Amino acid sequence: MVNISTRRLADVFVEAADTLVDEYDLIEFLQMVTNRTAEITGASDVGLLLADQRGQLQFVAASNENVKALEIFQIQNHEGPCLDAFQGGQPIIDTDMEAAAARWPVFAPQAATAGYRSVHALPMRLRNDVIGAMGIFGTESSRLGRGDIPIVQALADVATIGLLQERAIHRAEILSEQLQAALNSRIVIEQAKGAVAQLHHVSVDEAFLMLRHYARSSQRRLGDVAHQVLADPSSLAGLELLRPAHASTAPADDEPTR
Amino acid sequence: MVSRAQQRLAQVRALIDAEPADPADSAADGATMPLLRRLCRAAVRSLPATGVGVSVMTEAGVQEIAAASNATTQRIEELQFSLGEGPCIDAFASRRPVLLSDLRDGGGRWPAYCVAADGEGVRGVFAFPVQDGAARLGVLDVYRDRPEDLSPEGLAQALTFADVAMTVLVDGQAGAPAGRLAGGMDKVLENRAELHQAQGMVMVQMGITLTEALALMRAHAYANDVDLNDLARDIVARRVSLDPGEGA
Fold first, then answer.
1. d(C-alpha B50, C-alpha B35), whole Å
2. Rounded to an integer, what distance in angstroms lies between the CA atom of residue A129 and that of residue A160?
3. Measured between CA atoms, how close is A84 to chain B, in angstroms?
4. CA dihedral over B66, B72, B73, B75, signed as positive or negative
5. Does residue B48 have a cis bond before it (omega within 30 degrees)?
6. What ipTM describes this predicted complex?
7. CA within 20 to 30 Å of B92's CA: A126, A137, A245, B186, which one?
8. What pLDDT is stored for residue A22 in this prediction?
9. CB pairs under 8 A between A and B
10. pTM of the entire structure?
11. Which of A204, A221, A230, A255 has the most B C-beta neighbours within 10 Å, making it the best mutation to test the interface with B?
């Protein structure tokens, strides 16, 4: 049994908390989590798989190339402890690779060839949301004790929290941009209505009809037409032809000053 | 273990939930605007304050939509955008709170705003950006009629109300069709339509930029002591012209 040092563990949590405070690179953070988990658990290699938006697992980070290949092997062959932990939402604890040949006929021999004797797979989970899995592969005599599992699960949880936090920030940014864009396009259209009203001596409602008619007949978006009017009010060729009938009888002596 | 910040967030959410709906709100107002107004009223009760408002702003720092705890606060909330200066505009631009416990001491920074707000009975203004990381949408303003600092707990709570306002706006937008505004915000934006129309008209008439047109309208409204929105309506209706060479 590996005795995980409390002191060392505390250092890892402090490092994780420091990383999560400011803007951080997600992949670097997950890489750090796999490296530290591997160090803490002794002679183990650690890999992380994450589900994409369609729920398909993808490789994201590993403590070395050997375990990276094994994680990808699981995805390609639709079989292995990380997939089971992800699908079931439950940890797969301390499975002996030789005894696992029946459960994972393709994966177990491959893992044994790569030098691994045991495996743990932990779901990355927040409440009911399973977003990925962490695989801990033991070489030779190293084997985690049952008492170490909650600690390793805590490390998987740190990775999960970091990830969900990043996604939440990203969502807020996207929705804020959408809101700002919608706000802005409304404003631009109102300003263009005013510009056309002044330029062609019509009311703002008539100006809107002219702009909409122009956009439709030239198969352009109203917002784009509005932007063009504001950039150069006289640049829409033929817009004046769309003036409503009554407006065309307006006196021609007060031409706009532009 | 639940942190103090989490407790405060839960407390603020409970306060907003407990705040009665305004009978004047109709289904056509959508969900977002009535919820923001409830948030403002809950903040007034809890901080305490004489008024609280939330303004949604464009990246250029122009206020577009305001929710406020009452009609007077709504008017005060619009004041700094009519004048083009004030702590709220600075809080948005700098992305950090601007705390002014006595605006009679802050007259050097925002001379026109401080006089006008004082005239509405305001002494303290505390402006908190409504933002989440790089995403920012506006400002939450707390108004008080006495020159007093916010307590540390009041400050923490005001920041929490601003965070919840961000969540309300972001969640509201999540339910909106692409390119549209959510939860009755469209309807509120109608109030601003004439300001932008007038801006476009003045731009063409005077041969100036949109920004210059807005500045000219603000100066005219200030010099003639009229409301900027009223001036905009008069320009659109062609009752007023800002062109000195043209008799309106």
1. 19
2. 10
3. 31
4. positive
5. yes
6. 0.74
7. B186
8. 55
9. 118
10. 0.65
11. A204
